[in-house]
Amino acid sequence: MVVSFKESAKTDPRIKLIAARMKKEGFKPDSLIEILHTAQGAYGYLPKDILLYIAQSLRLPLSRVFSTVTFYHFFSLKSKGEHTCIVCTGTACYVKGAQALLNKLESSFGLKPGQVTADNKLGVQVARCIGACGLAPAAVIDNEVAGKVDAEELIQTINMKTGIV
Amino acid sequence: MNKIPVVINDTKLEVDPHKTILEVCREHDIEILTMCHLKGIIDIGACRLCLVEVEGVHKLMSACTTKVAPNMVVKTSTERIRRYQLITTELFFAERNHVCAVCVSNGKCELQQLGYKVGLDSIRYPFLYPQCDVDTSHAWYVMDHNRCIMCTRCVRVCNEVEGAHNWDVMNRGHQVRIISDFNTPWGESISCTSCGKCLHACPTGAIWPKAIVQGQLQKNPAMITELIARRKMKL
Amino acid sequence: MIRHELHALTERVKAKQEHFKHRICVCCGASCISSGAEEVLHKLQEEIKSRGLEETVEVIPTGCMGPCNQGPLVKYLPEQTIYQKVDCDNIQRVVQSQLVENKPLEDLLLFADSREKAFVNANEDPFFKQQQKIALKDCGDINPESIEDYLIAGGYQALDKALFLLSPEEVIAEVKQSRIRGRGGAGYPTGLKWETVYKYVSDQKYVICNGDEGDPGAFMDRSVLEGNPHRVLESMAIAGYAIGATKGYAYIRGEYPLEIKRFELAIKQATKTGLLGKNILGSNFRFEVEVRIGAGAVVCGEETALIASIEGKRGTPRPRPPFPAESGLWGKPTLINNVETFAAIAPIILNGGEWYSETGTPKSAGTKVFALAGKINYSGLIEVPMGTTLREIVFDIGGGIQNGAEFKAAQTGGPSGGCIPAAHLDVKMDYESLMSLGSIMGSGGLIVMDKSSDMVDVARYFMEFSMDESCGKCIPCRVGTKMMHDLLQKIGDGKATQIDLDRLEELAEYVRDTSLCGLGASAPNPLLSTLRHFREEYVSKILPAE
Hints:
Strand order of the largest sheet of chain C: 10-9-13-11-12
Structural class of chain B: alpha+beta
Number of helices of chain C: 22
Low-confidence stretches of chain B: none
Radius of gyration of chain B: 19 Å
Strand order of the largest sheet of chain B: 2-1-5-3-4
Number of domains of chain C: 4
CATH architecture of the largest domain in chain C: 3-Layer(aba) Sandwich
Shape of chain C: globular
Structural class of chain C: alpha/beta
Helix content of chain C: 40-55%
CATH class of the largest domain in chain B: Alpha Beta
Radius of gyration of chain C: 24 Å
Largest sheet of chain C: 5 strands, mixed
Order of helices and strands of chain B: EEHEEEHHEEHEEHEH
CATH superfamily of the largest domain in chain C: NADH-ubiquinone oxidoreductase 51kDa subunit
Shape of chain B: globular
Largest sheet of chain B: 5 strands, mixed
CATH topology of the largest domain in chain B: Alpha-Beta Plaits
Distance between the termini of chain C: 81 Å
Number of strands of chain C: 13
Mean pLDDT of chain B: 95
CATH architecture of the largest domain in chain B: 2-Layer Sandwich
Oligomer: heterotrimer
Largest interface: A-C, 41 and 55 residues
Strand content of chain C: 5-15%
Strand content of chain B: 15-25%
Distance between the termini of chain B: 22 Å
């Protein structure tokens, strides 16, 4: 089950990126979370063969890597979708109706938090407070923060970005 | 080494410094309940059964991780501690699907014995009934997550004694599960050496050998402690 | 760079800045950016250029100015005039009026749409008048991406003073004398913590800045890091000098990419200028700082979990003792302070501990930053002396409840805190007073609720949070939070009986007393505090006895 990445590493820039980061960190097992951040950024999620590659490079037990990955909400084992809508469910947003946004997303796209459309176009997630409490309720659509979000407008923005009508 | 004076349950004792409250109590036949403790492996203070009251300390302290100090005054069995031990035991039973009558460990299970000790006759809290797998993929052993109490003794024994680190914990909160490798079936693990130490470390019927009939399982956790002691002697 | 070169550099950049008659600050805090502040900044820079004013007027991006829901905000210095809701369409009018006609544009002044009379000098507005800025001083006035701006504002002079005029013991003495307590939530005396780490002898010690602001509704750390990163960096170096550490880590939430970017830039600038690295300012002191990015686990705000996370592991707490001061990162003595605590250190060293201790109350010295949010008219970030009453914060500064509704409760301390009902509006906001009401100061989130909030559901909301964020290591928190959540849901659904309520209370006490770490031990607080102040709402939802 040992996978060699020597061949593909030459061509795949994402693997090169991860390899460079591991080298920079001196292949220290302590740097696991930093490396996972790099891999998550490169792929949008953490494919299992990449996790194996990281585990072997850092000489970490596989279960130790998997336990770390599944502990932190930032890391994901499957694609979060080409476009993402993250609804903030922090206290201020809760008080100002974040649930209504989630309900609207579910009724419009059939997506609950953590789910992705069948064609992988759109994923819906929730965040534990993005720190934009003054603008509650807030959402993040493809890395852009939107404040004082109205449910109808949110759907329109998503439709525009994804082409889903 | 100079001994230090401590008072445990109103009895004055002269004890070795650098020892934990748990070690001192066990040496003096003072009962402390434990689940996640296994002598020889690193203590983590997770099962909260060994909590004791220490005079002058606001919080309850886990006896397995707290060292004795000169003139420390400890109480191990107050009304509050006994009440909390009962709730902890109830939560252990309510968390997963423990059905003693059909369990291989019936009669020899540490969790079952704990239930008798704290006088458990019914469980007042709602059962969580989680969906748990039974992993039978290994040639000799079975991992039944329904009976796991997340003491992580298997994880620590596999890592600290065998050095394989096949086991670890995935997810967090009430969704934690013991995993081998990348949550791969045990039988397909590339890390497991099939040494069987986890089986002996497991306090319940969560890990058991296939060649066994109900109620016949005999585990030997003391073997792990002995193994660690012998290895230390060689070094 | 050696010492006198820092002074020379500071004088040089000061002289350069004196060319400008006006400074226009565009708030580029996270909230204003999401309202379009960056576009306003570029448009404004073009506008100044096209009018040929770039020699006398400087336009800069700054950190958070405070009134976050009025953004994008633009401030004119030295007039201290703030304009709200500035956009690409009205920007020309502002420039024309303020810079050409030399009179303020009344209809866009801060709070012009909600106050009878808006203030030309924003500092006279009640929102700012009752505030006292120490940690947030300079936030909103300087460019956080420019070390020169920080130097002009007196930056790195505290480090200079510490290294050359004070011994490590004297630095610690100043911090002790200031009586500042940890701003992360627990309120442990900072000076005492420093002294403890200082006393341990070790070949290596560490300083950690805890920027894992996990409480929902709290964004003070974010604002300090994005508005004045050098202040935190300078204070971390001072801490390193005091306790004998050469290495620091800043642990910042992954949810805050802008803060990570600005803090990493600040490290780069400071290293290049010789304010970090070897032989700082020509002394024998060496100090380096690295950023560690959080990966989405609130429990990592707990110090032993944070250490595990920096070591690349699952962020599960371990029992204390040993405390991190004795055995922390990689088993070495480690000092961990919150971002807001660090933000106050440089001013304390510069002005003396006594100066700081004169503000606030006898047991809670200094100022506290609060993040106001919820059903309040002016939400945003404020800094007030400890001991300011809740009423002053909600009604004088925050402008009261939206739509003239009735105040029901204020939630402080997030999932570890509690609700303060209307009967206690005059409570002084300090550690002891909040504790006596069953709440905590926490990190400073303050969420205002009106009559539309259902307190049982509020308790359920926070319990869901704690349940999801429980690390799962110890059984009281792992199973207890799940059961308490389910019971709260059952009460909310109108299906529960008095027996369920009794079980719930029993579990709350049990989880509080037996959990391994602070997250579990404080998880029952929102439940216990709503039971204490709003029990009738629980009782009204349970089924009558048969």
